[in-house]
Amino acid sequence: MECKKEANKKRCKCTYESCPRNGICCECLRHHLSKNQLPACCFPEDVEKTYDRSIEKFIEVYQEKNG
Questions:
Q1: Cα 23 → chain centroid
Q2: pLDDT tens figures, 29-40
Q3: Non-local CB neighbours of 2 within 8 Å, separated by 6+ positions
Q4: How far apart are CA 31 and CA 3, in angstroms?
Q5: Rounded CA separation 48/65 (Å)
Q6: Is the pLDDT at 17 greater than 90, yes or no?
Q7: Residue 37 CA to chain centroid, in angstroms?
Q8: Partners of residue 54 on adjacent β-strands
Q9: In whole angstroms, how far apart are CA 62 and each of 7, 32, 57, 59?
Q10: What is the mean pLDDT of the chain?
Q11: Residue (of 32, 2, 36) closest to 16 by Cα position
Q12: Using H for helix, E for strand and C for coil, what is the string for the chain?
């Protein structure tokens, strides 16, 4: 399968501009999961900007939103 890096970059929510995985979703996901995190695309924009990509933060945000 061909990577659609340029198309992915247009939709990427990550604000960490020097990230070498920007637009390469499979590498981004692998990187964050290895650190018990989720990628930027899993978070609302205001939360993503905090750079707290922890699974705990993800649960907290969505419990508040749906609680």
A1: 11
A2: 999 999 999 999
A3: none
A4: 17
A5: 15
A6: no
A7: 8
A8: 37
A9: 27, 19, 9, 5
A10: 93
A11: 32
A12: CCCCHHHHHHHCCCCCCCCCCCCCHHHHHHHHHHCCECCHHHCCHHHHCCCCCEHHHHHHHHHHHHC
pTM for the full predicted model: 0.84
Per the listing, tokens 């990230």 go with 19
23: left (phi over 0), alpha (psi -120 to 50) or beta: left
Residue entry with tokens 């995190």 = 37
Cα–Cα distance for residue pair 24/56, rounded to 1 Å: 24
Buried b (16+ CB within 10 A) or exposed e, 39-48: bbebbeeebb
Tokens of 2: 């061909």
pLDDT at 10: 92
